[in-house]
Amino acid sequence: MFDFLQGYDVLGAFWTTVQLTLWSAIGSLLWGTALAAMRVSPVPVMRGFGTWYVNVVRNIPLTVIIIFTSLGLFQTLGVSLGAGTFTVINFRLAVLGLIAYTSAFVCEALRSGINTVPLGQVEAARALGLGFTQVLGLIVLPQAFRSVVGPLANVLIALTKNTTVAAAIGVPEAALLMREMIENEAQLILISAVFAAGFLVLTLPTGLFLGWVSRKAAVRR
Amino acid sequence: MEPTSGAAVSEQTFTPGTSSRALVELRHVDKHFGPLHVLRDVSLTVDRGEVVVVIGPSGGGKSTLCRAINRLEVIDSGEIAIDGRPLPAEGRELARLRADVGMVFQSFNLFAHKTVLQNVTLGQIKVRRKGRKAAEERARGLLDRVGVGTQADKYPAQLSGGQQQRVAIARALAMDPKIMLFDEPTSALDPEMINEVLEVMRQLARDGMTMVVVTHEMGFARSAANHVVFMADGRIVEETTPDEFFTAPRTDRARDFLSKILHH
Ligand SMILES: Nc1ncnc2c1ncn2[C@@H]1O[C@H](COP(=O)(O)OP(=O)(O)OP(=O)(O)O)[C@@H](O)[C@H]1O
Ligand SMILES: [Mg+2]
């Protein structure tokens, strides 16, 4: 029944999906945190940039961003991100695009988390003599992160599914292989089911695990 | 002691290091919140080792006064100096000055994601640059002193209000402050917990700590305060000894206020 899988590296494709997800998740967590820090910073220019970035990026379709990394960054500007082969270049460009896009959502999730931290926490920290960066890094962000594990899990699940857009620039991840198999084999429904199941295997445990973390990490007040 | 000339000069300017007794000086301080005039030409001197109790009706500007002293609230005009140095603008220098001014809030504001011990070591390690071991040793000593030594590894939410407030006092003391500010430290507490906190504060006063305390606890004011400052409508209406204030207030405003808190 599953003969149609013969000759296709389904696991390999999903491994690429996992790698896209992981690198993009790490990158967007870092950049998203930096953006959130900018959005609450006392420096108007930084706040302005953070707000501008989130509002622009959130409203552009991911496909447009991913295709721009390939056509705009690579083919026009020659940005190859230190890679030699097309496969690696496209992979890195896709990660860059996914980070640029996902970080806007990480930023917004974090910002809502920052809003749950009572002002008194900040005042107590400032009264001790901590500077802005210390207050943010030691008091506000740790509490904000704990309160947004749930929303961040949703962002991660969305990111996992969004990696399929990387197919648009030829990254050999799951969706690209699925399209190829559907063209070559006469098993449309079965092939779709296999790939759908593959994504469930990735996202369901993630959601359950992070749900558990979210309950563990919650700050009691 | 030179009597008059020195005093006349310091009316005009703050001369660092010269005024040896005054630890906090406010001169003609004004502060608005939008159209609301919350501090009106407030001048106040707190001498080293002195305990000043600030009392007055709600909305009178007591909290604002307290918070202006470590610049959690920025004033519109006038001058505030601590230990002879005018409050600097927001930045590294202000942070350093805040480290010398302990503050205890009505709502405790312990760091919710840190244990009691971490609450008391954080400032020592991150601001005073002490080593972890020395900081923990000091923290445990202070926690013992305020009577919560056995709670060191719990989180704030696991403690009673009175215990949390005593931890907050220990957290402030860990910075070796020159002065401690208390903004209604007992008014969020259940009655049976008020005394355990006041007792810690009385002990601090006996040990010679300079303190500014916003409170309506008359027992504390009578037993620990050197001065009572009565504030209403953004002004210091009366400044006198606790005995005089509670037995023979000079202004109608104060008499009116006292009759209200005495017969509630
Ligand atoms: N951040 C703020 N923005 C606007 N108005 C404020 C702010 N903080 C305080 N006020 C107002 O300023 C006035 C003085 O407030 P303050 O908190 O200093 O009074 P208080 O004497 O401490 O009163 P209470 O006994 O109720 O604590 C009040 O009318 C208050 O509503
Ligand atoms: Mg108040």
UniProtKB/TrEMBL annotation, chain A:
Keyword Transport: yes
Entries under CDD domains matching the protein: TM_PBP2
InterPro entries to which the protein is assigned, alphabetical: AA_ABC_transptr_permease_3TM (IPR010065), ArtM/GltK/GlnP/TcyL/YhdX-like (IPR043429), MetI-like (IPR000515), MetI-like_sf (IPR035906)
Stretches that traverse the bilayer: 20-40, 52-74, 86-106, 127-145, 188-213
Record's keyword annotation contains Transmembrane helix: yes
GO molecular function, one term: transmembrane transporter activity
Subcellular location: Cell membrane
Domain ABC transmembrane type-1 residues, every copy: 14-210
Single biological process term from Gene Ontology: amino acid transport
GO cellular component, one term: ATP-binding cassette (ABC) transporter complex
Keywords carried by this UniProt record: Amino-acid transport, Cell membrane, Membrane, Transmembrane, Transmembrane helix, Transport
Membrane topology (UniProt): Multi-pass membrane protein
Pfam families: BPD_transp_1 (PF00528)
Main subcellular localisation: membrane
Homology family: Belongs to the binding-protein-dependent transport system permease family. HisMQ subfamily.
NCBIfam families: HEQRo_perm_3TM
UniProt-recorded name of the protein: Amino acid ABC transporter permease
Organism: Streptomyces pacificus
Automatic annotation (TrEMBL), chain B:
CDD domains documented for this protein: ABC_HisP_GlnQ (cd03262)
PROSITE patterns: ABC_TRANSPORTER_1, ABC_TRANSPORTER_2
A Pfam family it matches: ABC_tran
Record has Protein biosynthesis as a keyword: no
Membrane protein topology class: Peripheral membrane protein
GO cellular component: plasma membrane
Residue ranges of the TM segments: none
Residues covered by the ABC transporter domain: 24-258
Catalysed conversion reaction: a polar amino acid(out) + ATP + H2O = a polar amino acid(in) + ADP + phosphate + H(+)
GO molecular function: ATP binding; ATP hydrolysis activity; ATPase-coupled polar amino acid-transporter activity
Chief subcellular location: membrane
E.C. code: 7.4.2.1
InterPro entries documented for this protein: AAA+_ATPase, ABC_ATPase_HisP-typ, ABC_transporter-like_ATP-bd, ABC_transporter-like_CS, MetN_ABC_transporter-like, P-loop_NTPase
Localization terms from the record: Cell membrane
Keywords recorded for this protein, A-Z: Amino-acid transport, ATP-binding, Cell membrane, Membrane, Nucleotide-binding, Transport
PANTHER family: AMINO ACID IMPORT ATP-BINDING PROTEIN, GLUTAMATE_ASPARTATE IMPORT ATP-BINDING PROTEIN GLTL
Family: Belongs to the ABC transporter superfamily.
Protein name per UniProt: ABC-type polar-amino-acid transporter
Originating species: Streptomyces pacificus
